[in-house]
């Protein structure tokens, strides 16, 4: 095994330990769980799938994994390379085709919220129909932190992506096993491991300005305090109700 392979393996195991911590801290997985992994082919969902598949080999519990691709019929987006990759990896998968645009509409006639809502709805409905009880999403530590600040600054409320969140009386549960993993570590692993690059849909409505603004703000604050992201993440667990407005 060459030096690069050893380094990749060490980094992969290190990330796996963080996933294990998140799973344990939030009781994300139990014996017999059937887990759908939302798979887009991006570095986050690919890392999530690889880590959960790896943990299946030694976890003290048994759980099933199914990669799910939501095919929204977006123009120019080829799903086949994702399918070929999953076949090569030996991962069970399902492609759910949906149409969310009304007759005569184009993607420019909608917005990010509507697109995301329909994709999430399809994940929920398909997972339930196929008898799965957990949906694993590839949101990482930075996603959660940035969402807290985006909601605070631009929506005027305090909320976050929860690492584990139950819906419909516990019939379906969203889990985010990458909750303790920073984006930079996923990016580094993807680069060193030479993840395949799939063509991503260049949405005309894609506006990352606000999220980039938050990323830049956090990066600037980290120069003064390296614990900024940790503090933001833990802040919602340390709410002092005596000092909140009625």
Quick one: biggest sheet? 6 strands, mixed
- Specify the helix fraction band: 40-55%
Helical stretch count?
8
SSE topology string = HEHEHEHEHEEHHH
Mean pLDDT: 88
What is Rg? Answer: 19 Å
Alpha carbon gap, first and last residue:
61 Å
Strand order across the largest sheet: 3-2-1-4-6-5
* Poorly predicted residue ranges: none
The helix-and-strand class reads: alpha/beta
CATH class: Alpha Beta
Tell me the CATH topology: Rossmann fold
Give the total of domains. Answer: 1
Number of strands: 6
CATH superfamily: HUPs
In percent terms, what proportion of residues is strand?
5-15%
**CATH architectural type:** 3-Layer(aba) Sandwich
Q: Choose one word for the global shape.
A: globular
Describe the protein's topology.
Blueprint: H1 3-25, E1 34-38, H2 43-56, E2 64-71, H3 80-89, E3 93-97, H4 112-129, E4 134-136, H5 141-155, E5 164-167, E6 172-175, H6 183-192, H7 209-222, H8 228-235
């Amino acid at each position: 095994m060459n030096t690069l392979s050893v380094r990749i393996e060490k980094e992969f195991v290190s990330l796996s330990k963080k996933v294990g911590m998140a799973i344990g801290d939030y009781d994300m997985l139990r014996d017999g769980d059937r887990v759908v992994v939302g798979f887009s082919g991006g570095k986050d969902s690919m890392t999530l799938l690889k880590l959960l598949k790896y943990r299946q080999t030694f976890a003290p519990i048994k759980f099933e994994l199914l990669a799910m691709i939501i095919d929204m019929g977006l123009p120019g987006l080829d799903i086949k390379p994702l399918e070929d990759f999953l076949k090569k990896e030996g991962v069970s998968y399902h492609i759910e085709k949906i149409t969310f645009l009304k007759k005569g509409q184009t993607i420019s006639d909608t917005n990010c919220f509507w697109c995301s809502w329909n994709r999430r709805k399809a994940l929920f409905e398909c997972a339930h129909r196929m008898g799965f009880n957990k949906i694993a999403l590839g949101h990482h530590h930075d996603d959660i932190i940035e969402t807290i600040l985006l909601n605070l600054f631009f929506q005027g409320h305090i909320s976050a992506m929860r690492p584990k969140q139950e819906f419909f009386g516990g019939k379906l549960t969203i889990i985010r096993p990458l909750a303790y993993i920073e984006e930079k570590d996923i990016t580094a692993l993807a680069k060193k491991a030479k993840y395949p690059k799939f063509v991503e849909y260049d949405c005309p409505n894609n506006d990352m300005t606000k999220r980039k603004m938050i990323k830049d703000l956090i990066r600037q604050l980290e120069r003064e305090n390296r614990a900024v992201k940790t503090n933001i993440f833990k802040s919602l667990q340390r709410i002092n109700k005596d000092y909140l407005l009625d």
